Amino acid sequence: MIFSKRKPTPGSVKAPGSGSAGGPSSGAPGSVGAAARYGFDYLPADEVYLDSACQTLRPAPVQNALLDYYQNYGACGERAKYDWGLKVDEKVAAVRKKVLHWLELPAAQYAVSFTLNTTYGLNLLLTQLPRYNKIITTHTEHNSVFLSTMSYAKRVGVPRLLLDRDANGNVLYSPAQLAGSVVVISAMDNVTGAAVANLRELVHDTHKAGGIIIIDAAQAAGHAPELVTNLPADAICFSAHKMYGASLGVIVARNALIESLELSFLGGGQVSAVSADSYTLLNEPYALLEPGLQAWGEIIALGAALDWMAGYQANVGESISAREHRLGTALYDGIAAIGKYNIISPRGSSIISVVPKGGDGHRIAVFLSKAGIRVRSGFFCAHHWLQEQLKSPPLVRFSVGAHNTDADIAKAIDYMGRLAKTF
Description:
It is built from 13 helices and 15 strands. The protein is α/β, with parallel strands linked by helices. The chain folds into 2 domains: 1-58 and 318-423, Aspartate Aminotransferase, domain 1, CATH 3.90.1150.10; 77-310, Aspartate Aminotransferase, domain 2 (3-Layer(aba) Sandwich). It has a 7-stranded mixed sheet with strand order 2-8-7-6-5-3-4, with helices on both faces. A 4-stranded antiparallel sheet has the order 11-12-15-14, covered by helices on one side. Strands 1-13 form a two-stranded parallel sheet. Strand 6, helix 6 (220-223) and strand 7 (235-239) form a beta-alpha-beta unit. The longest helix is centred in the first third of the chain and has 21 residues, at 83-103.
């Protein structure tokens, strides 16, 4: 458990700037002081969470937004005509606009739909997508992409092509391979944190070849948003819980793509009329991907997360990306200097995955946890690449976030050095 045992006042999480443990103090921007844990004053200073690639911690404004919904106007959206329901509708509509503004995508061409997580969003698209000539992804994908593309190929009876990436993160392909294809790819690798360096070129070439491209932005959305900002993909799927929001999935898709789907997942919230043997769909494209009741509070909390992220640099003195790059570089250099770990991530990434030279990755994660340092171990849902292709033993993955400080990194390096002496 990483949270403080101190209980907040009912109806509120302690706000940034209160001066509690881990809160603002004097110091240089990005140091242990100077609002180093802006929004995370509730975290005890000695607790180190380095698993932001799985899910980020939630800053106080996000927690407060979610609690405000549950305590003050927790009604259904898109159904009720009373004041609470209308307030939900207003706030949810505002979040859809914020998402498009954040991604710099035109509202006339794109719709924002909400779902459970990135994996669910990708499957919701691919299980209803019509037949294309082939489906393409890479060997290094997270299982959310790897398995859903496998399922699509089997369902519609088309070939599935697996591409490689080079050492610089470029996807290796020829434009001819893209003809009439569905390309599904992550913008930022789940294991190493490497970005797809030629992502914009791949989007352009896919469209030029008459195909469509769907982006898994689960990692990029919170840790490298510049990869997917103003990116004219056909769909971008990501998770709010990896970008400081509550547990939620987001699909941002072209209206034309949504309208091409062969809908098979249907229910309330998608139709304007129903007869004994037929139904009429709503005109709003976003509704076609939102069957049933939605997670209204979590959607509203995403709006608070986007606002908090937008104000981060002004309050801390560096952007989230810059902070993660700086801390990730320090962690990379510190672990590399120990000499008993092979690092497979690029220097400067917010994700640092290592293979111990003799130790066991799972045991290392357990020992770090006993010291109050929480990291992941294993294969991080990239089993084909790590186990089948690289024949790798379990890895240890550190992933930094906006809440982390220089002290967190120093503690992690110190304990990795101590553990290295045991093997």
